[in-house]
Structures are given as structure tokens and as C-alpha cells.
Design goal:
429 residues; alpha+beta; 22% helix; globular; 8-stranded antiparallel beta barrel; single chain
């Protein structure tokens, strides 16, 4: 007579742990209801750490984030990482929020989040100021982690000269919260990451906790509230005095939107965030995106204080119909008669040694929003024509017929890391 096959409950505890680590939290709760043996699962530190390691172990070391000695701390770590995972990648600053340094802080429209061994760090990302260099400067902006008690902690770092207070370069506690999946808010405070129940409810209801009513609306609410309060107008005046007595905010609330596709794909080889050396030998950032109809748009991400600043269109194409070899003599002359701006950089990249595999016709987008640029060329529409030259290594360059140079582009990031990065002296967090 054959012996009965062992059931799941007969397996050793370490095998239970390994199998259950594949399950989501909702399934863990369901398993805990099946028997008394499994009822302690929701409070098991080992299980929650195993679940963290299963999902994020290739990016970070969950066991080194804190020293959780109870199931609730390990569970909070899992819940925090589950939300923070959406931070990874590039975010672009919107609005005019900046630190006390004003123009200094506004030089960094891009922030890039990446995993560390026991934390997540958001870096300000900016082009290197050295002429002809493809290096990208990283400076710490926000750090997210866990305290020894298992609570989320978030700190904002200041650049030298940004803060006008006596805090110098010391980081301060901030609140970091999502307003939907693609909108991030960083504001002064000490609640850490917005992962509590109240914050989740605000996101579900579409409430933006960091964008309070404007001052006029707030005063109107206070006025009508004080009409029925015991202190009346006296209470309203006390409230105004308390507001004036508050210390000056160290920085304004900052808003960011996520750059969803910052790397090219097999179906969209041009999309993503790229860097290239312009005709004045300065490094610039370019964001290329595809629309739902197959069109391609490139936008220039620049310093907020510059002309056509922030997120200005550079070129576009209504479709992605590439020209393939053999190319016509006219197309060959357009390409071979140009100089490559990257040839003058200090790293000596060999752009001319690469082969052009495809060519795409583009148009300057400036003529759509700034008609004077076209009029300046006597209305000749050929002056706003351009080309994208895709190389055999997957990168590409672009240029316009009116110019005599090619701006060759390289990736800014790959596999979750900034390429050619130079960290500031404050980056050792």
C-alpha cells in the first residue's frame, strides 16, 4: 500500500517561507485563515523580509534598510517599497517651486531616482559645465529610507548657496507624496513619505494635500467660520498674527511629473532621454516621444531661465517612415557635408566612424509656435527641414538643412543608472 503524499502543511518551515514569498499580501492573509499553524503569517518578520527580497532583492538589500524586530515593521517596509518602486526613473520639475536660492535651485529641472543598498536617492541631474563633455552631474536631492523603528523617513538635501538659512547644507525632513501615479510632490514637513491611510484616501479621492486653497479662498473660509465661533472677528485676527509669526519656509513646495519612457525600445528606437553637444559646445538634454499615431516629437529640456526654456519643442515628424539604403546623392551630400559637434568633445568619441543605417525627414517645430523664425528665412520652408540619421549602433544624430552640423545623441541612463555621471561632493549619503 502506497503511503499518502505529503501535504503542504507537512513541508518544512523554510520551504513554506520560500513558497509563500511569491504571493501578494492579499493572498498571505487568505493563507493565514486556513489553519492555526498559518495564522501568525501576517505578523511574521521573516516572511515579509522574504517577500521584500523576492521583489526588490536584485535592486537593494531589504534586510539592511532597518532592523525590524516585529512583523509590523517588516510589513511597513514592504508597503513602503511597494509605493517607492514607482519613483524609479526620471521626473521633471513643473511650476515655479524652488528653494530659497531661487534661480540656483531652478537650474535642475530633472530628478532621477535610483536604488541604493539601504535607501532610495533622488538626484538632481544637470549637464556638465565643461565645454565638449558628455558627463552628467548628479547631486543629491531627496533621500528616502526607514528608521530603526520601521518608520519612513525622507530628507531633502540643499546645494551650496541654495539655502539662505543658518542650516547650511544640512538636510531637512520633508514630505514626499504621490498625487496619482505620475505626479510627485515634495514639501516641507516631517511626515516622511505619504503612505499612511489618510494620505492614501486623499490620493483615491483626487485631493492634493500639498496644494491648499489660495490665500483669498482660505481667508473667506476663515471669515465665515468665525461668524459662528465664540471669538468671532477676534479669533480671525489671532489667526492672522500666528501666520505672520511663523518662520520663513526653507523652500517652496515642489511638483514633478514622471518621464515614462526614458529609454528606447525595439519598436520605438528613438524614444527616450538623450544628451548631445550643441553648436556652442555645451551639453543639452533632449526628450524624444512617439504619439499614438506614430509621429515623433523632440523637446529640448533646458534651464528655466533660458530662451524657449523648460520644455520647448525642437523638431517633429508626422510619421516614422525611414529612408533605407541605398540613399540618393542628395541625401548623402546633406550628411557628408556636415561636421559633428561631438567631434570637438574631450572624450574623443568617433562619430564619423559609424555607419548611417536609416534616415528620417523632420521639421523644426519652432515654426509652429514662433512664426518669426520662418519669416527670418524669407519664408523658405526648406530652412525648417531637417534629418535624423540613425546609426548602426542604435544611437542617432539630427540636424537642419539651414545648418552645417550634426548633433549626435547618447543615452542619459541605462538599466536604472545614469551614464557618464559625475557626483558632487555631497553625494555620499
Amino acid at each position: 500500500m502506497e503511503s499518502p503524499s505529503p501535504s503542504f502543511t507537512d513541508l518544512p518551515s523554510d520551504i513554506h517561507l520560500n513558497i509563500l514569498s511569491f504571493l501578494p499580501p492579499s493572498s498571505i492573509s487568505a493563507v493565514a485563515c486556513t489553519s492555526r499553524r498559518f495564522s501568525p503569517l501576517p505578523t511574521s518578520p521573516s516572511l515579509w523580509l522574504a517577500m521584500c527580497d523576492r521583489r526588490w532583492g536584485r535592486f537593494t538589500s531589504p534586510g539592511s534598510w532597518a532592523a525590524p524586530n516585529c512583523g509590523s515593521a517588516s510589513r511597513r517596509l514592504y508597503n513602503a517599497l511597494d509605493k517607492w518602486e514607482n519613483l524609479m526613473g526620471f521626473w521633471r520639475r513643473i511650476g515655479h517651486g524652488h528653494g530659497s536660492g531661487g534661480a540656483h535651485a531652478a537650474r535642475y529641472p530633472l530628478v532621477f531616482f535610483e536604488w541604493n543598498e539601504n535607501s532610495i536617492t533622488g538626484f538632481r541631474v544637470s549637464p556638465c559645465n565643461e565645454p565638449g563633455s558628455y558627463d552628467v552631474v548628479k547631486s543629491p536631492f531627496v533621500s528616502l529610507g526607514m528608521s530603526k523603528d520601521g518608520e519612513t523617513v525622507c530628507y531633502r538635501w540643499f546645494e551650496e548657496g541654495e539655502s539662505e538659512t543658518d542650516l547650511g547644507l544640512d538636510p531637512i525632513a520633508v514630505n514626499v507624496s504621490f498625487v496619482g501615479p505620475n505626479h510627485l510632490v515634495v514639501e516641507e514637513g516631517n511626515r516622511g513619505f505619504g503612505s499612511e491611510i489618510e494620505e492614501n484616501l486623499e490620493v483615491q479621492l483626487g485631493i492634493q494635500s500639498s496644494s491648499p486653497p489660495d490665500q483669498a479662498t482660505l481667508e473667506m473660509y476663515q471669515y465665515f467660520a468665525n461668524l459662528t465661533s465664540p471669538s468671532g472677528e477676534k479669533g480671525f485676527r489671532k489667526q492672522k498674527r500666528r501666520e505672520k509669526g511663523r518662520r520663513k519656509s526653507l523652500f517652496e513646495t515642489e511638483h514633478f511629473v514622471k518621464i515614462g519612457q526614458y529609454c528606447p525600445s525595439s519598436f520605438r528606437p528613438l524614444q527616450g532621454l538623450w544628451k548631445g553637444i550643441s553648436e556652442n559646445r555645451s551639453l543639452e538634454f533632449y526628450l524624444v516621444a512617439y504619439d499614438d499615431l506614430g509621429g515623433i516629437t523632440c523637446r529640448h529640456i533646458s534651464n528655466p531661465g533660458s530662451q524657449f526654456s523648460g520644455y520647448s519643442p525642437l523638431f517633429w515628424s508626422p510619421n516614422a517612415d525611414f529612408l533605407i539604403p541605398p540613399f540618393s546623392k542628395e541625401e548623402l551630400d546633406i550628411y557628408t557635408s556636415r561636421v559633428h559637434t561631438g567631434d570637438f568633445n574631450l572624450n574623443n568619441y568617433d562619430f564619423e566612424g559609424r555607419l548611417v543605417s536609416r534616415i528620417l525627414c523632420i521639421n523644426s517645430s519652432y515654426n509652429l509656435v514662433i512664426p518669426d523664425l520662418v519669416e527670418g528665412h524669407n519664408g523658405n520652408l526648406r530652412d525648417v527641414e531637417g534629418r535624423i540619421w540613425e546609426y548602426d549602433d542604435g544611437s542617432f544624430g539630427f540636424g537642419f538643412v539651414r545648418d552645417d552640423f550634426v548633433i549626435d545623441l547618447k543615452r542619459v541612463a541605462f538599466e536604472g543608472r545614469i551614464l557618464d555621471s559625475v557626483q558632487t561632493k555631497f553625494a555620499n549619503l
